[in-house]
UniProtKB/TrEMBL annotation:
GO terms for molecular function: ATP binding; DNA ligase (ATP) activity. Pfam families: DNA_ligase_A_C, DNA_ligase_A_M. This is DNA ligase (ATP). Keywords: Ligase. It comes from the Bacteria. PROSITE patterns: DNA_LIGASE_A3 (PS50160). Its EC number is 6.5.1.1. InterPro entries: ATP-dep_DNA_ligase (IPR050191), DNA_ligase_ATP-dep_C (IPR012309), DNA_ligase_ATP-dep_cent (IPR012310), NA-bd_OB-fold (IPR012340). SUPFAM superfamilies: DNA ligase/mRNA capping enzyme, catalytic domain, Nucleic acid-binding proteins. The keyword Ribonucleoprotein does not apply. One of its GO terms (biological process) is DNA repair. Gene3D superfamilies: DNA ligase/mRNA capping enzyme, Nucleic acid-binding proteins.
Length: 315
C-alpha cells in the first residue's frame, strides 16, 4: 500500500446547524493513517512521513480491527497533567529521533489513537462512499481498547464548541455526513472551528528577511516589571506593506541587549528593541503553567496600550 494524502478540513468561523452535519472534538494531536494488510502494518503522518516505529502500541491491528486489509485515519493524542490533549506532549513521541528511546517514552508519554474514518477496507477503496456509510463500516470493524478509541459525534455543534471554549481546548471539526473522502483534498465539506484566545503583548525583538521584519518576539511583564518572552509570530492580519512599515518603526527602538528576563527560542538571529509597541495577539493554545510559549500566535492589530500593561496571567 502506498501512502495517501488525507482529506483536510478548511478553517471556518461558522458552525453548521443542518441535520446532515456531524460535530467532533478537534483533538490536539498528530494526524496518523494506519495501513494494514497481509504483508504488515505501517503508519504515516499527513505529510507521508513514516511513523511506524514511533507508535508500536498501534501495530497489532487485528487486536482492534476485524478487517484483513484497511487504511484507517485518525489523530494520535497524548494527555498533559491536566488531563487534556497536549500538542506538546504528543510531539515528544512524534519527534523522537533516537528510536531506541521509544519503549521508555511509551511509559512516560502514553498515547491514544482517536480513529474517525476508514478509507480502504478488505480490498476495496471506500473513500467515494458518503461519510455516513464509512462511519457505519468503521463502527463495525473497530473494537476500542486501551490505546484505540472511536471519535464520538455530537449533534449540537454550538454546544460542543462552548464546552471546548470553557475547557480551553482547541475547537471542533464539523463534517458533512454526505461527504466523500477526497484523497489529497481540502474543502468545506469538513470544517474546523478553532477556539482562539487573545492576549496583549509587548514587542521586544524582531527578525529580518531580505532587510524587512518577518517576525516579532512577544513578551509580557510580571509583577516586578520583568519582561518574559511568550512566543514569536510572523503571521496575522498585517499586509506586506505593513510588515515593511514595521521595519521603519522598530529600527529606531533597537538596543544591544535583550529586554527579556528569559531566553527566547529565536534569540540567535534576533534584533532587540526597547519595548514600546503593543500588539493584540491571537493564539490557539497557551500552557503557561508548564512554561510553554504561545502556540500559533498571530498579530491581529497594534493597539494603543502601554507595554507595561501587558501582564502575565499569573500576576
Amino acid at each position: 500500500m502506498e501512502p495517501i494524502y488525507p482529506f483536510e478540513p478548511v478553517i471556518s468561523e461558522t458552525i453548521p446547524t443542518e441535520p446532515h452535519w456531524r460535530h467532533e472534538i478537534k483533538w490536539d494531536g498528530t494526524r496518523i493513517l494506519t495501513y494494514h494488510h497481509q504483508h504488515g502494518t505501517k503508519l504515516f503522518n499527513r505529510k507521508q512521513n513514516e511513523r511506524t516505529r514511533h507508535y508500536p502500541e498501534l501495530l497489532e491491528v487485528p487486536s482492534y480491527c476485524k478487517a484483513s486489509s484497511v487504511i484507517l485515519d485518525g489523530e494520535v493524542i497524548a494527555l498533559a497533567a491536566d488531563g487534556k490533549p497536549s500538542f506538546h506532549e504528543v510531539m515528544r513521541r512524534d519527534l523522537i529521533q533516537k528510536l531506541h528511546r521509544v519503549p521508555e517514552m511509551q511509559r512516560s508519554v502514553p498515547i491514544t489513537y482517536m480513529i474517525f474514518d476508514v478509507v480502504y477496507c478488505d480490498g476495496e477503496w471506500v473513500n467515494s462512499r458518503p461519510l455516513s456509510e464509512r462511519l457505519e463500516l468503521l463502527h463495525g470493524i473497530i473494537t476500542p481498547n486501551e490505546h484505540v478509541q472511536l471519535v464520538a459525534s455530537h449533534g449540537d455543534g454550538a454546544s460542543l464548541f462552548e464546552v471546548m471554549r470553557q475547557q480551553s481546548m482547541e475547537g471542533i471539526v464539523c463534517k458533512d455526513l454526505r461527504s466523500a473522502y477526497a484523497l489529497g483534498g481540502k474543502d468545506d465539506r469538513w470544517r474546523k472551528v478553532k477556539n482562539y484566545g487573545d492576549v496583549m503583548a509587548a514587542i521586544g525583538g524582531f527578525t529580518l528577511n531580505g532587510g524587512f521584519v518577518n517576525a516579532v518576539l512577544l513578551g509580557q511583564y510580571d509583577g516586578e516589571g520583568k519582561l518574559w518572552y511568550i512566543g514569536h509570530t510572523g503571521t496575522g492580519k498585517l499586509t506586506k506593506a505593513e510588515w515593511r512599515d514595521l521595519t521603519g518603526i522598530l529600527t529606531p527602538m533597537m538596543t544591544n541587549s535583550s529586554p527579556f528576563a528569559n531566553r527566547p527560542d529565536r534569540h540567535k538571529d534576533a534584533y532587540w528593541v526597547t519595548p514600546k509597541l503593543t500588539a493584540k495577539v491571537q493564539y490557539s493554545e497557551w500552557r503557561w503553567q508548564e512554561g510553554r510559549a504561545l502556540r500559533q500566535p498571530s498579530i491581529q492589530s497594534f493597539v494603543n496600550v502601554p507595554p507595561e500593561q501587558c501582564r502575565l496571567p499569573w500576576t
